[in-house]
Amino acid sequence: MTKLTISHLRGGVVCLCFHLHISLARFLFVSPGVVWTLQGKTQYQNPYFAPGCLKLFQPESVFSHLQRFVGNGNSESVVQNKLSHPVRTRFLRFVPLDWNPSGWMGLRVEVYGCSYKSYVADFDGRSSLLYRFNQKSMSTVKDVISLRFKSHQAEGVLLHGEGQRGDYITLELHRGRLDLYLNLDDSRARFSSHRVPVTVGSLLDDQHWHSVHIERFNKQVNLTVDSYTQRFQTKGEGHSLEVDYELSFGGIPLPGKPGTFLRKNFNGCMENLYYNGINVIDLAKRRKPQIHSGNVTFSCSQPQLVACTFVSSSSSFLSLPSASPAVGGFSVRFQFRTWNPEGLLLSVQLNPDPQQLRLQISNSWLRLTLHSSGRQKSEVSAGRRVSDGLWHSVSLDARNLQITLTVDNEPSSTIELWEQVQSRGSFYFGGCAATAPDCQGFAPAFQGCMRLIFINSQLMNLSHVQQGLLGNYNELQFDTCNIKDRCLPNLCEHGARCSQMWSSFSCDCSGTGYAGATCHNSIYESSCEAYKLSGSSSGFYFIDPDGSGPLGPTQVYCNMTEKKVWTVLSHNSTAPVTVQTSSLQKPHVMIFNYSASAKQLRAIVSGSEQCQQEVVYNCRKSRLFNTKDGSPLSWWLDREGEKRSYWGGFLPGVQQCSCSLEENCIDMNYFCNCDADTDTWANDTGVLSYKDHLPVSQIVIGDTDRMGSQAVYHIGPLRCYGDRSIWNAASFYQESSYLYFPTLQAELASDISFYFKTSAPSGVFLENQGLKDFIRVELSSPSVVTFSFDVGNGPAVLSVKSHVPLNDRQWHYVRAERNAKEASVQVDQLPLRFLEAPADGHLRLRLSSQLFVGSYLFKKEGGGGAKMTPGVSAGCPGYCTGSSSLCHNRGRCVEKSNGYICDCSQSAYGGTTCNQEVSVSFDRESSVTYTFQEPFSVMQNRSSQASTSSTDSRAREDVALSFVTSQRPAMLLTVSTFSQQYIAVILATNGTYRNHTWKCCSCASVFFVNANFKNMNMLLVGKEGELNNILVSEELQQKYTLSSDAELILIRSLTLGKVTRMENFDEEVIQGASKGFIGCLSSVQFNHVAPLKVALTNRGSSLVTVRGPLVQSNCGALAESHTLQGKTSTSMTLMICLLRLTNTRKDLAVIAGVVTAVVFITVCALAVVIRLVYQQRRAQRSSGSIKEEHRHSMYTDYRTELHLHNPVRDSVKEYYI
User: Fold this and answer.
1) What is the CB-side half-sphere exposure of residue 491 using CA atoms within 13 A?
2) Where is the protein found, in the record's own terms (predicted)?
3) Is residue 41 predicted with pLDDT exceeding 80?
4) CA 925, CA 886: separation in Å to the nearest integer?
5) Fewer CB in 10 Å around end: N or C, the chain?
6) Cα–Cα distance, 789 to 244 (Å, whole number)
7) pLDDT tens column, 219-267
8) What is the pLDDT of residues 863-911, one digit of tens each?
9) Average pLDDT value for the chain
10) Preceding peptide of 1109 cis, ω within 30°
11) Which burial class, exposed, middle or buried, applies to 13 when counting CB atoms under 10 A from its CB (0-12, 13-18, 19+)?
């Protein structure tokens, strides 16, 4: 251990650029403990850990930003500062950031570290080191390879070795990343042209030292670059790596050698290269015979390419004068790297005036534009995907009436000139100064790095620019390329693709099953129970059993036909399997592969209330247990691969079958029917229901090898019901009561959601703390919910204020989320509050205490599971009490023993709380018809009620729907009755167009509602007594007066869209009905019926008839698209036609009278017939006259019945308002 103490004092005037540079005389391995004292200094910065170099450039990759250290405020105290990582360095530089107001300053530093030995080799791109083995080939089961390297090239082979068996190992630098190809006796990989590497690291061509460590044992490999480790298993059948003759480092000595991928050798420096404990560079330096070195030097003489960073996308620029103008033109060359797909690279004014040349990045391509007088311009493009973070070289030459653009030695692009041009004024790189002529308002400024800038073949000295001796600049960082790969590590979750710009990244969640800024939130429900609560019916669904966790969604079948909702997971063997000729020595083995992974199965089973799986075993001379010692002859394996020999109906460990429990085995001397070993078929069927063992992963049959032995088995699907997480409530009765759980695992992302109800004005819902970091959700005031956290960037606070008190003893919903890009919080249906994460801030939330729920944080010692203090009880009484906000849109709150559910059967909406719109897109031929009752049942019901004064007609009809359309006119809704009444809701045009086309003169009631329709339009039509209320867009309400006896009687059907059955409609209404409806209808409600919801959830229902294409849609998105396209009708008229049948009660009385008369006449006729039969023998002669009288009576009755129906027909009239 080395201790270096340095004291530095200075008085007088303080220089603003003062810093202390310490030379350690030799390389030291500085441990993560640095101690110093400061007098008069409160903050200090140690930004540079650069081995062997006095230049100012970026620290090694282990530091993502400059480190700030806190000093003391007096001369007595000592402040200890620890480095986050150990460093290898020779020079340290301390830069003051803040000074004591008294003007005194002093520094005493103690640095602790150990001596560090460095063995360095320099490869020039044509050299390599060959390590030859003592024998012909080397076969190893374990390998450990470590090295450090630095380079300014993005390509190059670091290590290669291969064997005749097909084994190979190649470590190469490719596109600034490190690729490892490793194959152990895999013939497929040997002959395959597409070999997939394991890739780690990024931007490794930054001229900084990077450490690599490869450790392999058998097929398990750990590849570490800097502080990131990738663990994987090799492909192939072998467990050893067999390499022939030699290993090469730094390149391939023979280009085109089989097994190589990139022919380019490494150009850079390697340090401390070890292969299985052998110091390869040391052997080469001492010229040992097993090492062959070609053109390798043993000092790192790589030139340091000075770069500058353009920081701002709006104001960064670098202005350089033209160096010794060339005769007849000019030339510019430079290298750049960036992530941004847009940005200005170069701008220069040209002579003859006015002309301007611009080089910019446009959609990740380079575009060169020559602007001439007026609006004339010439353009060419070159390069592709130049915003990939790699260095790209650009050459621009104006010679011989041509301007030539070359990118990365690709074919050039040329602009032809009418006359020779010459540069005028300065060259602007990356952007423009505010005073520069004709340089504003085009492309955004360049954000990225540039180096090796040549103007007219002269290299521009960026150090002179920094010192103010050359050109001008703004918002630039010199001597460093401060580019970062924000997609390494990939902060997008669940396999989403990460893309980035200079200061941010974004995630493409397509095909992942997740959504959100980092693809954190699952788009699927967590269980079939949740789908049931959302109003879904039986079918196949994707469920995500751990929500936003790592498991991912899986497809299951949800059976909702019973009271319990069953989750069904099938496997690969659904049909019965016949087994013969199997024994314990050669048993029959069947492995079951389910539609879900093992981890998903475990999550589904553990999250369910109960699970079961049926096992059917039909046998003939095939036993399950040996009759002598009771050892199993057949068994099955549980989900963990453990052997189980119970066959349902009993607890684990009991080797019995269900018939033993039910005491109905065919031979009561045995515990299973099959153990009777009869020559006839027997059956043992059981249901496995011990959750910890389910599902069955494998079955083994071992007793079918005797004469006449045979078995047929069938393993049913895994079936589970219940969701233990649907409602998990707790009540807190004391201020000091709380629940505590293990530490929240939420380093990079977390989401928290819950319901609460309280009468307290404030309180902490949840809190977890670390050393400095914390996360908290609380009710900070009666109407404000606050979500706060600190990940090292200072406290971040998001608050949602409700317009009503939240401590009203009603249920309220809270959801908070934090990820690497943003944080959000939502309360009930209030707007979501967002807070973006700082671009270069800390990301990881480091917590150490327990998670406390229900009260303020108290430091307690706890165990691994959830625990509670006194004053906490499970459950929450009265879930639906005062819960008007729980179930929306006519949804009914239903109390459960452990929670509540929303019954959405009477609502046009779906979802857990009846707040999800049910929307459908219609075209001209689409229609949905809902049939209320059949004619016979209706008439039968009416007849049964005719004797009473009450009728079945409603005193109120309520219609509610949302729609969006660009069609006019359009038929929205039609209601028809068996009594020839109807309601037609038509969207008509305004003004003369309405009068010309839609006279509707024969409608009984016509309402025209003029409104400006924008996006989604709400229509509510309610009739009660004599008043009709029409509400459009919740802004316009009108009332109309109808006749008091205008009621709908015997409603037959309701049709949305095009109407095909129009025998009783007016001619004008028929014209509108034939045009149908083009657009989107949503949440249609007619009294208690939701026809759209029924059509989508019960396709097979006899009450619903669907014609034409019908697509479930989103009216909100459709409305937005119509608005963007400018197609939304801005002034329309809603026309509602009502054809009424009046004198309803009078007509019903007539009908009742007719029915009574018919019944009375029928009874009388029957009495007459009986009397005639009785008197037949006694009055034979008078029979003819009696029959004639009977015929006359029947004819009279029939005529009477016809006359009684005439008043009913005559009363059918039309009335106009």
Assistant:
1) 22
2) Membrane
3) no
4) 38
5) N
6) 57
7) 899 999 988 899 998 877 778 888 888 889 988 766 545 444 447 889 9
8) 334 566 777 877 777 666 544 457 777 787 776 656 677 888 778 888 7
9) 75
10) no
11) exposed
Q: Are 98 and 18 in contact, with CB atoms under 8 Å apart?
A: no
- The CB density around residue 440, as the number of other CB atoms within 10 Å, is 11
Longest CA pairwise span in the chain (Å)? 154
Q: Which residue has 């003893």 as its token pair?
A: 809
**Which residue is it, tokens 């809902």?**
930
- Residue 520 in contact with residue 817, Cβ under 8 Å? yes
Q: From residue 125, give the alpha-carbon distance in Å to each of 131, 158, 269, 287.
A: 18, 11, 10, 21
Q: Among 131, 129, 130, 178, which Cα is nearest to 150's? A: 178
Amino acid at the residue 1211: S
269 has pLDDT over 70:
yes
Helix axes 935-944, 1144-1174, angle to 10 degrees: 80
Rounded to the nearest 5°, which phi and psi values hold at 248? -110, 140
The label of the residue with tokens 């539609």 reads 595
**CA-to-CA dists, residue 658 to 651, 668, 694, 855, 856, angstroms:** 11, 12, 18, 50, 53
Q: Which of 904, 946, 1086 is nearest to 534 (CA)?
A: 904
CA 117 to chain centre: 49
Whether omega before 545 lies within 30 degrees of 0, making that bond cis, reads no
19, 94 contact by CB (below 8 A)? yes
Q: pLDDT (tens digit, 9 = 90+) per residue, 814-850?
A: 999 999 999 999 998 899 999 999 888 888 899 988 8
Residue in 34, 168, 155 with CA at minimum distance from that of residue 94: 34
What is the C-alpha separation between 297 and 126, in angstroms, rounded? 12
Q: Are 270 and 285 in contact (CB under 8 A)?
A: no
Give bridge partners of residue 919 from the DSSP assignment.
1082, 1113
Residue with tokens 């003007």: 103
> What stretch of H or E contains 1075?
helix 1067-1075
Q: Which amino acid is at 659?
A: C
Task: Compute the CA torsion angle 400, 403, 404, 407 (nearest 10 deg).
Answer: 150
Distances (CA, A) of 172 to 198, 341, 518: 11, 28, 31
Backbone φ and ψ for 1156, nearest 5 degrees, come out as -65, -40
The H helix count followed by the E strand count for the chain is 13, 81
End-to-end CA distance of the chain: 104
Counting every residue written for the chain, the total comes to 1217
Q: Is the omega angle on the peptide bond into residue 444 within 30 degrees of 0, that is, cis? A: no
Instruction: Give the residue carrying structure tokens 């406390």.
Output: 852
Cross-strand pairs, 558: 539, 567
Considering only CA atoms, which of 522, 519, 552, 525 is closest in space to residue 541? 525
Question: Is beta strand 307-310 parallel, antiparallel or unpaired with respect to 476-478?
Answer: antiparallel
> Looking up tokens 């009335």, which residue turns up?
1215
- pLDDT at position 590: 92
Three-state DSSP at 864 gives: coil
- 793 has pLDDT over 80: yes
Burial of 468 (0-12, 13-18, 19+ CB in 10 A): exposed
Mention every residue, 6+ apart, whose C-beta is less than 8 A from residue 562. Answer: none
pTM assigned to the model: 0.66
Single out the residue of 73, 48, 69 nearest to residue 59, CA to CA. 48
pLDDT of residue 53: 28
Q: Three-class SS of residue 149?
A: strand
In this structure, are residues 727 and 609 in contact, taking their beta carbons and an 8 Å threshold?
Answer: no
CB atoms within 10 A of CB 386: 22
417: left (phi over 0), alpha (psi -120 to 50) or beta: beta
Peptide bond between residue 352 and the one before it cis (omega within 30 degrees of 0): yes
**Both structure tokens of 33:** 């403990």
Q: Would residue 1124 be called left, alpha or beta, if left means φ above 0 and alpha means ψ between -120 and 50 degrees?
A: alpha
